């Protein structure tokens, strides 16, 4: 048995408010292809899934080739937006996010990681823009794992850190995060400020849903105390 505690964070919608980037890039991608533009709420509903799966779910009438083309168009649009708006720094961190990460990093028994639907390149840009590189001992991305809610990313965080699932918590804003955490044997915390409603997170089985980052560390301590 190990006393290590592991907190794994989603990124978009949990740590970083990137919804304007995501929606605009998706609208540009579909506009480039000449297909009907999805509603903003629909785009946000699939945030967190791996890109091809997200696009296929958003536009189920597209062929496999069209999904691949849309994914490429999205990546191109996102890179262009990054250049136009000054990089990932244009997507702000949510209030209190950095303070929570700093506080957790000061605990010797706590390790932190990331499990995100972003590709490694996008995560690297986000971490560099927001000076997050020193916080996370394990960083899992969509380009090396099956899409959420498959537990592969979280199982890799356990392998990287030596922590046990019983002492690990997944923190995210979507039902995909909650489902992934439960599939990996993690406890789960939903955050209400992201892309899926709090009621959906509760229905998915989140152990706790918090409304601000001020409530995150007490929620983590509560779950770790139950382990």
* Largest sheet properties: 6 strands, parallel
Name the CATH homologous superfamily of the largest domain: HAD superfamily/HAD-like
Give the overall form.
globular
Number of structurally distinct domains = 2
Tell me about this structure:
The protein has 227 residues and is an alpha/beta fold. It has two domains: 149 residues, HAD superfamily/HAD-like (Rossmann fold, 3-Layer(aba) Sandwich); 70 residues, Orthogonal Bundle (DNA polymerase, domain 1). It is built from ten helices and six strands; from the N terminus they run βαααααβαβαβαβαβα. α9 links the parallel β5 and β6. The chain is globular and about 55 Å long. The relative contact order is 0.17. The model has no long low-confidence stretch (mean pLDDT 93).
Fold blueprint:
Blueprint: E1 5-9, H1 19-33, H2 40-45, H3 51-58, H4 64-85, H5 97-105, E2 110-115, H6 120-129, E3 138-140, H7 152-161, E4 168-172, H8 175-183, E5 187-191, H9 198-204, E6 208-210, H10 216-226
Parallel strand pairs: 1-2, 1-4, 2-3, 4-5, 5-6
Helix pairs in contact: 1-4, 3-4
